[in-house]
Amino acid sequence: MRNLVLFGPPGAGKGTQSAFLVDHYNLVHLSTGDVFRFNIKGETQLGKLAQSYMDKGELVPDAVTISMLQQEVENRPDANGFIFDGFPRTTAQAQALDQFLEGRGDSIECMLSLEVEVEELKKRLLARAATSGRADDADIDVIQKRIDVYNSETAPVAHFYKTAGKFKSIDGHGSLGDITGRLVDAIG
Ligand code: ADP
Asked: How far apart are CA 90 and CA 154, in angstroms?
């Protein structure tokens, strides 16, 4: 199995690049943000809970997110491998993912970290609001909160994969094709 973590701040291009990588490597795309939004749309209990955090730009609690992610993986026994997008977002999530995969005789191959400077992130998110319909993209205060949470809670996750020798930094500026090329080169 080829399991990849696509990492980076909000607006770094994780979702966009995932769409190409799933086709190219025949993987299952698993975006925790997408699963939460699906649940919000379906007005499930999980959706209601998640929305209360997402609207504020905060993280959904680890226990909820981890068990949801595990369920999503278990729902795809046919998968060749996964692209994890937006997960893990805390060190506790990274540890849980490692243990969970290990229990299945599996592991993460590498973390691909899309590096984009902060002014560019804000510009991309505000532009995306026009088409995404996402309330968390339309409000600059919520965007700033998401970037702050990324820096305090999520950025340390890179260290976890650096220690394991699995961290790859990718320049996330430039054309979509250029960035895809860098990702493919890094995956090898
Ligand atoms: P972005 O990367 O642009 O912030 P996502 O769709 O990945 O967009 O995430 C949107 C929101 O969903 C986050 O701000 C957070 O509230 C919630 N969320 C997504 N993934 C996780 C996660 N792994 N842990 C906790 N909360 C999450």
From this structure: 5
Ligand 1 atom showing the smallest separation from residue 65 Cα:
24
**From the CA of 8, how far away is ligand 1's center (Å)?**
11
CA of 133 to the centre of ligand 1 (A): 15
- Tens digit of pLDDT for each residue in 129-152? 999 999 999 999 999 999 999 999
Catalytic site residue from 2, 56, 122, 134: 134
Grouping H, G, I as helix, E, B as strand and the rest as coil, residue 5 is strand
Its CATH class, for the domain covering 2-187, is alpha beta
Helix (H, G, I), strand (E, B) or coil at 39: helix
Rounded to whole angstroms, how far apart are CA atoms 2 and 157? 20
Rounded CA gap, 73 and 104, in Å?
11
Give the atom of ligand 1 at the shortest distance from the alpha carbon of 58. Answer: 16
Cα–chain center distance at 57: 15
Assess contact for 52 and 38: CB atoms under 8 A. no
Task: Please report the atom of ligand 1 found closest to the CA of residue 137.
Answer: 3
Q: Token pair of 70, please?
A: 């595990």
Alpha carbon distance 68, 65 (integer Å) = 5
Question: Is 59 close to ligand 1, i.e. is its CB under 6 Å away?
Answer: yes
Position 55 pLDDT exceeds 90: yes
Ligand 1 near 54 CB (within 6 A): yes
Taking the domains of the chain in order of start, what are their residue ranges?
A: 2-187
